[in-house]
């Protein structure tokens, strides 16, 4: 032994003396190499990782009905490669087996009627799969998350999870790149991260992190370098404990930081924002199916407002008037329009002979992000807006290509004619030159059921108004039902003439179907029409404010108030709202009786101010009114600062804490204390007080790791004797006590043959070995520089490297 420490290396078992190049002999492995248990453990780890990560998809679909079939498909995908790995020569073909299992699993779950024996695909199976995939694509294109539960969506999710399992199994086991298997888990989380407001979520992310660590650990234990081995051959490498400590810290920090740091929940691209608009706000996009928004929105307040009316307004954002395309959407906005929003003149408007009602509304949109500005019908003036906004007088909408409604507070004045049955009964439809032809145009492919139904419902009614009321009453009759799900289940969700025909046949749908039906049937009868998209009258609140001598009453609209309704044009009166959707909004008074009445909740406010305000409300008054309407208060920043500080401290302390735990566990094992996780077992000496094989190996590993922490440059090509020489020079002594004992114990455990009950050359006692190790560790610390001691304590290099 003294020769070893003096630099004269002697051959050790496993050395090639002739070549003179030392090589590290492999520790003795007991047991016969069998792949039986290992392949199942590997398959189970991939299965757990995939299904755990799939929890991140909880916000994509309205419920978890897809989970059981997905479990079966993923299990089938992983079963076949595990079976092939039973024989090592067949292991390279595991990806082919995974592909086969994936296809058979999908066939068994979704297309048993088209398959041989219920699971063998046929050409008919391929056709059915393509049809289901096409249906899923349509649902995705016409819906925002959460999408409805439908077989097509289930098929897409199951196929995606099965493919992810195939990818992870191939990369981690066959290609022997377990770290790169994270790609498969990221693919699973990506849809939720991009399309849902909540993003991946804490549960989904933590499950993905735990699954990834599980795959790494199992591949390191059971399939190093892609070679599967049995549990009896498994040795602890130390990588798992470090990976688990680091991974757990990262997962914990990632779960805590989004709640503490504004950048995760605010800004231009927060998690789950769908790359458009701030997180945590409602979003009503008129360019997509309104049904998707209704299924997505919650009871979160989208906007609040105060008005000199005693009834809530319909808040318009945009209009749909071009019914010629397959998908109906707002017309493109002309950027050459006058950006000024003062003294607006809605055109065409009501005639001078018709009495009008002037309304003042102060609107706050703290939780609504849209390029379209919510406002009542017939706006005449808007003030207090931030950003650049354009007014379209023909459609009476306000839009911006550079600004958003998020966080806006503004004042709107509007002028609405006092409508009644008597006034409307004498009105006629617009002349051809009075309106843009787009408000009357119909495509050539209008289904016959639309015109036939319109004429049957109108019957012998002569006036446009009477015909409009007949259409509204027909759609609100008991023959039709309101449903968000039926159009999706029966395949006619969205817009277009084919959708409208199916709706009139099935007689079930939601606001976009009812409003479209009335608007198109009105055009069939010669009445110009359009569809308004925005918010139905919300609920009143207790907020009150005084402005310019008028009392303003508080109201609010939530995401569930998202709505669409038709507006029909009458000469001399302008655009008049109707409400054909049952169980939504309220029927206008001017469609119910002969009593002349002011506009009401379903159209415009019923109570007018004594006089139109003569001056624009001051900034102070407007701010006070909006605050009374429920503007958010300033957030206390102390929880934010505390959370960030705690998270940073935890991050900085992670290496030190993990290294301390590992050191104490190793020292306890060497001294003979109860231990866990060694995976090696002892040599039968635990009860005698003698150091066992595992104890000696752990002692050597801790000595080298501590030396690395204090600056030792570890070279895996050197023999233990050469390492001992270099560590001896670090200690500054020619014959340091205890080093020879630790080295000889390691060499004996790694290369020697153990007899029953004790080592052939005599094993040191646990206390003796532990005392020697602790002495060496203490001497390494005392001989180190202050910087080396600081680094060894707080940034130990052995935490990330395996000596």
UniProtKB/TrEMBL annotation:
Q: Fetch the InterPro entries from UniProt.
A: Bact_TGase-like, Papain-like_cys_pep_sf, TgpA_N, Transglutaminase-like
> Where in the numbering of this chain does the Transglutaminase-like domain appear?
503-582
The signal peptide, as residue positions, is none
* Pfam families, alphabetized: TgpA_N (PF11992), Transglut_core (PF01841)
Q: Does the keyword Nucleotidyltransferase apply?
A: no
Region (Disordered), start-end ranges: 1-32, 584-616
Q: Which UniProt keywords apply?
A: Membrane, Transmembrane, Transmembrane helix
Keyword flag Lipoprotein: no
Protein name as annotated: Transglutaminase-like domain-containing protein
């Amino acid at each position: 032994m003294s020769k070893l420490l003096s630099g004269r290396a002697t051959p050790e078992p496993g050395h090639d003396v002739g070549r003179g190049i030392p090589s590290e002999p492999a520790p003795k492995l007991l047991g016969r190499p069998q792949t039986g248990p290992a392949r199942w453990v590997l398959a189970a780890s991939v299965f757990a990782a995939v299904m755990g990560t799939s929890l991140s998809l909880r916000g994509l679909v309205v419920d978890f009905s897809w989970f059981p079939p997905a479990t079966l498909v993923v299990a089938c995908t992983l079963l076949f490669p595990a079976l092939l790995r039973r024989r090592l020569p067949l292991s390279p073909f595991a990806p082919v087996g995974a592909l086969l299992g994936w296809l058979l699993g999908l066939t068994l779950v979704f297309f048993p009627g088209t398959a041989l024996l219920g699971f063998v695909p046929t050409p008919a199976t391929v056709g059915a799969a393509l049809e289901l995939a096409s249906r899923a694509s349509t649902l995705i294109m016409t819906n925002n998350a959460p999408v409805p539960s439908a077989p097509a969506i289930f098929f897409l999710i199951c196929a995606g999870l099965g493919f992810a399992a195939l990818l992870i199994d191939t990369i981690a086991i066959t290609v022997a790149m377990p770290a790169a298997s994270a790609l498969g888990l990221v693919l699973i989380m990506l849809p939720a991260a991009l399309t849902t407001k909540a993003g991946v979520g804490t549960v989904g992310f933590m499950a993905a992190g735990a699954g990834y660590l599980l795959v790494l650990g199992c591949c390191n234990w059971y399939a190093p370098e892609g070679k599967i081995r049995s549990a009896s051959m498994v040795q602890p490498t130390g990588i798992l404990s470090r990976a688990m400590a680091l991974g757990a810290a990262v997962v914990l920090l990632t779960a805590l930081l989004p709640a503490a740091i504004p950048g995760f929940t605010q800004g231009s691209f927060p998690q789950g924002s769908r790359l458009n608009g701030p997180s945590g706000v409602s979003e009503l996009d008129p360019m997509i199916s309104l049904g998707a928004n209704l299924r997505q929105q919650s009871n979160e307040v989208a906007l609040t407002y105060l008005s000199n009316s005693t009834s809530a307004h319909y808040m318009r954002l945009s209009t749909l008037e071009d019914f010629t395309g397959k998908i109906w959407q707002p017309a493109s906005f002309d950027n050459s329009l006058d950006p000024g929003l003062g003294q607006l003149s809605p055109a065409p408007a009501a005639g001078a002979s018709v009495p009008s009602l002037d309304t003042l509304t102060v609107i706050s949109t703290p939780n609504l992000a849209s390029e379209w500005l919510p406002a009542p019908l017939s706006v005449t003036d808007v003030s207090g807006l931030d950003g650049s906004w354009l007014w379209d007088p023909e459609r009476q909408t306000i839009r911006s290509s550079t600004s958003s409604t998020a966080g806006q507070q503004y004042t709107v004045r509007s002028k609405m004619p006092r409508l009644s049955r008597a006034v409307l009964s004498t009105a006629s439809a617009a002349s051809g030159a009075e309106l843009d032809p787009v408000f009357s145009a119909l495509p050539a492919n209008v289904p016959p059921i639309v015109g036939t139904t319109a004429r049957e419902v109108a019957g012998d009614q002569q006036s446009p108004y009477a015909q409009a009321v007949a259409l509204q009453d027909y759609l609100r009759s008991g023959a039709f039902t309101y449903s968000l799900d039926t159009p999706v289940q029966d395949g006619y969700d969205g817009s277009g003439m084919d959708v409208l025909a199916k709706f009139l046949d099935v007689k079930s749908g939601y606001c976009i179907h009812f409003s479209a039906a009335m608007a198109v049937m009105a055009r069939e009868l010669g009445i110009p029409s359009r569809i308004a998209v925005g918010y139905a009258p919300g609920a009143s609140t207790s907020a009150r404010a005084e402005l310019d001598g008028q009392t303003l009453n508080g109201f609010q609209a939530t995401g569930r108030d998202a709505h669409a309704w038709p507006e029909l044009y009458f000469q001399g009166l302008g655009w008049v709202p109707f409400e054909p959707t049952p169980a939504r909004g309220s029927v206008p008074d001017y469609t119910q009786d002969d009593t002349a009445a002011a506009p009401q909740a379903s159209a415009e406010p019923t109570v007018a101010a004594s006089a139109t305000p003569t001056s624009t409300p001051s900034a102070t008054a407007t701010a006070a009114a909006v605050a009374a309407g429920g503007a958010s208060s300033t957030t206390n920043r102390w929880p934010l600062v505390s959370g960030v500080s705690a998270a940073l401290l935890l991050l900085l302390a992670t290496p030190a804490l993990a290294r301390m735990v590992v050191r104490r566990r190793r020292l306890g094992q060497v001294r003979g204390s109860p231990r866990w996780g060694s995976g090696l077992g002892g040599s039968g000496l635990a009860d005698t007080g003698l150091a066992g094989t595992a104890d000696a190996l752990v002692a050597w590993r801790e000595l080298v790791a501590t030396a690395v922490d204090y600056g030792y440059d570890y070279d895996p090509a050197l023999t233990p004797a050469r390492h001992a020489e270099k560590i001896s020079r670090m200690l500054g002594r020619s014959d340091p006590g205890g080093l020879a004992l630790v080295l000889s114990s390691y060499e004996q455990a790694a290369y020697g043959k153990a007899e029953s009950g004790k080592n052939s050359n005599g094993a040191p006692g646990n206390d003796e070995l532990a005392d020697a190790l602790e002495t060496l560790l203490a001497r390494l610390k005392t001989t180190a520089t202050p910087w080396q001691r600081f680094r060894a304590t707080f940034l130990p290099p052995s935490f990330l490297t395996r000596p």
